[in-house]
Amino acid sequence: MTEKEIINQDGKLKFLGHRYDNTDNKGFLKLFKTWLAYKNAGKKYHQRANLPESLTEGLVAKDIENTYRKVGIIKTKPKSGVQTKFDCFNEKLNKIIEVKGCSIPNDLTSWSPKPFFDLFYFVDFSSLDGKYKIYEINVSSNSEEFLSIKNVKGKTNLDLMNAGRRPRFSVYEHFVNKKIGCDGNPLIIGDLNTL
Predict the structure, then answer these.
(1) 184: nearest Cα among 140, 96, 141, 124
(2) Separation between Cα atoms, residue 161 and residue 146, nearest integer Å
(3) Which of 61, 72, 83, 173 is 20 to 30 A from 95, comparing alpha carbons?
(4) CA 71 to chain CA mean position, Å
(5) What is the rounded average pLDDT of the residues 39-43?
(6) Up-side HSE of residue 11: CA atoms within 13 Å toward CB?
(7) Model pTM?
């Protein structure tokens, strides 16, 4: 793991980022196995256990070139309008990245009522055996492709966000299967057991 202070290209945001490498693979496998044991133990009590953000964001910061996982904001009072809530940052592209993950094949992904991202990565662990797929989805939080998605009641993501509510929808259904923002194929296919 490499720790680095990163300043975005317009100089408005300074944060501490981690870039992972293959020396972190054992840690990712241990985190996955711990999460899986917790998930399985909770079945009896109907306890839902979401994938750890440190796993999905960490793998994106390891597998996607020039990408760092944000672990802290350095400027205590960033300039007005600067987004400080984000998952990862691609230093070369100067893009804020949102990372979402799923552990079931028919995902229902929940979003912040005020999401902000330039690029989105989706990490699929639904095989539950340590294999994962990372999809790069070239949509932003203010793109028509994202804002126009409708829920079962006909409300768009924009409607929900304007009401301060969380959009929830299937990333597979709205992006991957329809090849919106991507070609429908994973950018990365990995296996924590063989790393």
Answers:
(1) 124
(2) 11
(3) 173
(4) 14
(5) 82
(6) 0
(7) 0.91
